[in-house]
Design a protein that fits this description.
Elements lengths: L4 H21 L14 H13 L10 H16 L22 H14 L16 H14 L9 H18 L1
Helix pairs in contact: 1-3, 4-6
Length: 172
Amino acid sequence: MPYTNAQRRQHIKEIQTYLYAISLFDSRIPAIIPDGNYGTETAVTVKAFQRAYGLADTGNVDSATWNKIVSVYREYQRMEPRSLNCFPSQKHIVRSGDKGEVVCIIQSILRVLQKYYDNFPPLTSCGTYSEDTVKAVRAFQQKVGLPVSGTVDCKTWNMLVTSFEHVSATMQ
């Protein structure tokens, strides 16, 4: 059975997908959107990969290049989990009525900690800094000896993250 155009496009898209994932970790590799077309953009990305990883920079994917792309991609998949630094700034304060990703993360951390602290108020993760969130933050602040404000400043954030890391380590 001959190698079809559809199979060729699928293999090109697979190469592009791996290169895109690698570009997220390695700034030497330009990001490429996987589309299944081996055009100039793909050739430039392959050349950059080849230069970065000590291969002849031909822009073509030979077996050495393919094997190295797959190897690097798999290395990034096996690496230790990366920490998430998402608190906006040292002076930022998250308070009642705020919405967004940081609030979701705070609520998620608090929900995990609820399992390890007695008498912790119930809380749902909704992305809005609700009165239930204020109560849970106050309870947490009291348990760890922080000023009880019900808001999350840098000190409370750091204590939340440290407590979460501690609890997560014991869950493994």
